[in-house]
Amino acid sequence: MSDVSVKLSDAAIRRRQLSEFWFYFSRNKGAVVGLAIFLLMVFTAIFADWLAPHNPTLQYRDALLLPPAWLDGGRADFLLGTDPVGRDILSRLIKGSQYSLFIGIVVVSIALLGGVIIGLVAGFFGGWLDALIMRIMDVILAFPSLLLALVLVAVLGPGLTNAMIAIAIVYQPHFARLTRAAVMAEKQREYVSAARVAGAGNLRLMFLTILPNCVAPLIVQATLSFSSAVLDAAALGFLGMGAQPPAPEWGTMLAEAREFISRAWWVATFPGLAILIAVLAINLMGDGLRDALDPKLKRS
Amino acid sequence: MIRFILSRLLYLVPTFIGITIIAFSFPRFLAGDPVLLMAGERGVTPERHAELSAQLGYDKPLVLQYFDFLGRLLHGDMGTSLVTKKPVLAEFLSLFPATVELGLVAIFIAVLLGVPIGVIAAIKRGSWFDQLSMTGALVGFSMPIFWWGLLLIIFFSGYLGWTPVSGRISLMYFFPNVTGFMLIDSLISGQDGAFASAVQHLILPSIVLATIPLAVIARQTRSAMLEVMSEDYVRTARAKGMPRRRVIGVHALRNALIPVVTTIGLQIGVLLAGAILTETIFSWPGIGKWMIDSISRRDYPAVQSGLLLIAGVVMVVNLLVDLTYGLINPRIRHR
């Protein structure tokens, strides 16, 4: 048997790794549910323009604050009711899924890229450079993340792009710390010395030799950051510092709904529920990923 | 122990300097001239502009400005608010007790419920209680608390009419501000119903603020308990024939609580971030709402000092957590 496995191609090894990953991931039922909801959200976001029954910014002046269809006074063509200016809430929620996914992807990409490079440099070179970088990361971590993001947005100016940049800056130290710790552990291993002896340069050692072996904790952290980014961006939107109206971003929708909550509970309930479901699904997935990627847990 | 404390204090110096640099540079990153910002819409004459710049020290090199800033800071001078014209530090200190009161009650709720839930879930691993409470914890962990606050207001204040929507106490009551903590002051005042009113006002905001820490503490306690229960010394204690209650309470729980204490400490930052949202929703007159108002009013001295003071509070709390950690876990202290 052993000589058969030796001949396995790279693609076959990857297939095996994938099936092993799926084996552990799928043992966590919550994670599978989370993945299913997340995929549904991705589908909704991609096909939002076809799925939404109405234009999300169109105001139906004859249908202000209509309750959901199943309540008295509701109309079947406005399934989840309408907001104070007569926009269809369901259509806005569907369109809003694009914002949340976009925010998550952009924030995680920036924070991951920045954090990985900073962490690689700090962990690989060590010494004063490492000390300096890590102290700067400590400073960023000393501020409550939402507060720092808020102040950064105040500096940059309110808006979705700036909110995403601010959140990414605030999240980036977590990736830097993780990468640094992983790099420092891997740096001592023999395969790294072997590569160095074989003549690999620093860049090759950092990005091609060491980095691929530090990926597992980064994936888990990326998932957690994705859900936090959705939550924090919604919070900034809610405070008027994120996406600006009339954008159907879920947090911004909640902010607009605030003054109507005593008369029309649905305008505040559904956007928040959408945030909760999205964040919960991603967190469920994150739990499953940790189970599947953490070798310590796998053995037990 | 003294060496341990000193080394931790020394470790904080670079972080503190970094925090002051961020707070110092914040208004300088803003688009526009600080003097013009202060002058408001009416603007200033060029002579007055030069005079103000010199008075505020904006004409000096940046490095000198920073040391001036640091010097004033060490004398407790944090500038005056552009809006209220009061010293920022005094304003912060007058609002801080409200946030501390809310935060303390929230962390109290979170620990009081979170630790037992985590312990029971670990002992009864796989039971319906375990599954239900951990699902609940994950929902709590994922909760957009600004929405959760609105839901509670809709239901308890709007529909049932049980709790007030905003503020710290009913306007009917008036008594001297002794400690700044409404619960204590209302008790001292001896007025009928004042304490009950304070509790009624506090209950929803503290539940909202407690939600995420409660979820985190319950999850952390459960996993710490599970880890400890599989240790050899727990097995030994059991094998000796020690009662189950004593094994769990003395051997397992005491060791499992060590990481939990760290988790509780780490929640302080979460609490302060949560306070910004919670105080905004419930119009709670604390520093969270004050920061938001200052940011939207473009009151930069207030934002600058608020940033510094909040980071300072987080730093001090983290230090205290570190020291407690050393106290309950000698292995850390003697490293």
TrEMBL record, chain A:
<feature type="transmembrane region" description="Helical">
    <location>
        <begin position="101"/>
        <end position="126"/>
    </location>
</feature>
<protein>
    <submittedName>
        <fullName>Dipeptide transport system permease protein</fullName>
    </submittedName>
</protein>
<dbReference type="GO" id="GO:0005886">
    <property type="term" value="C:plasma membrane"/>
</dbReference>
<dbReference type="GO" id="GO:0071916">
    <property type="term" value="F:dipeptide transmembrane transporter activity"/>
</dbReference>
<keyword id="KW-0812">Transmembrane</keyword>
<keyword id="KW-1133">Transmembrane helix</keyword>
<dbReference type="InterPro" id="IPR025966">
    <property type="entry name" value="OppC_N"/>
</dbReference>
<dbReference type="InterPro" id="IPR000515">
    <property type="entry name" value="MetI-like"/>
</dbReference>
<feature type="domain" description="ABC transmembrane type-1">
    <location>
        <begin position="97"/>
        <end position="286"/>
    </location>
</feature>
<dbReference type="GO" id="GO:0015031">
    <property type="term" value="P:protein transport"/>
</dbReference>
<feature type="transmembrane region" description="Helical">
    <location>
        <begin position="146"/>
        <end position="171"/>
    </location>
</feature>
<dbReference type="InterPro" id="IPR050366">
    <property type="entry name" value="BP-dependent_transpt_permease"/>
</dbReference>
<dbReference type="Pfam" id="PF00528">
    <property type="entry name" value="BPD_transp_1"/>
</dbReference>
<keyword id="KW-0813">Transport</keyword>
<keyword id="KW-0571">Peptide transport</keyword>
<dbReference type="Pfam" id="PF12911">
    <property type="entry name" value="OppC_N"/>
</dbReference>
<feature type="transmembrane region" description="Helical">
    <location>
        <begin position="264"/>
        <end position="285"/>
    </location>
</feature>
<keyword id="KW-0653">Protein transport</keyword>
<keyword id="KW-0472">Membrane</keyword>
<dbReference type="InterPro" id="IPR035906">
    <property type="entry name" value="MetI-like_sf"/>
</dbReference>
<comment type="similarity">
    <text>Belongs to the binding-protein-dependent transport system permease family.</text>
</comment>
<keyword id="KW-1003">Cell membrane</keyword>
TrEMBL record, chain B:
<feature type="domain" description="ABC transmembrane type-1">
    <location>
        <begin position="96"/>
        <end position="321"/>
    </location>
</feature>
<feature type="transmembrane region" description="Helical">
    <location>
        <begin position="198"/>
        <end position="218"/>
    </location>
</feature>
<dbReference type="InterPro" id="IPR035906">
    <property type="entry name" value="MetI-like_sf"/>
</dbReference>
<feature type="transmembrane region" description="Helical">
    <location>
        <begin position="307"/>
        <end position="328"/>
    </location>
</feature>
<keyword id="KW-0812">Transmembrane</keyword>
<dbReference type="Pfam" id="PF00528">
    <property type="entry name" value="BPD_transp_1"/>
</dbReference>
<comment type="similarity">
    <text>Belongs to the binding-protein-dependent transport system permease family.</text>
</comment>
<protein>
    <submittedName>
        <fullName>Dipeptide transport system permease protein</fullName>
    </submittedName>
</protein>
<dbReference type="GO" id="GO:0005886">
    <property type="term" value="C:plasma membrane"/>
</dbReference>
<dbReference type="InterPro" id="IPR000515">
    <property type="entry name" value="MetI-like"/>
</dbReference>
<dbReference type="InterPro" id="IPR045621">
    <property type="entry name" value="BPD_transp_1_N"/>
</dbReference>
<keyword id="KW-1003">Cell membrane</keyword>
<keyword id="KW-0813">Transport</keyword>
<feature type="transmembrane region" description="Helical">
    <location>
        <begin position="252"/>
        <end position="277"/>
    </location>
</feature>
<keyword id="KW-0472">Membrane</keyword>
<dbReference type="Pfam" id="PF19300">
    <property type="entry name" value="BPD_transp_1_N"/>
</dbReference>
<dbReference type="GO" id="GO:0071916">
    <property type="term" value="F:dipeptide transmembrane transporter activity"/>
</dbReference>
<keyword id="KW-1133">Transmembrane helix</keyword>
<feature type="transmembrane region" description="Helical">
    <location>
        <begin position="102"/>
        <end position="123"/>
    </location>
</feature>
<feature type="transmembrane region" description="Helical">
    <location>
        <begin position="135"/>
        <end position="162"/>
    </location>
</feature>
<feature type="transmembrane region" description="Helical">
    <location>
        <begin position="9"/>
        <end position="30"/>
    </location>
</feature>
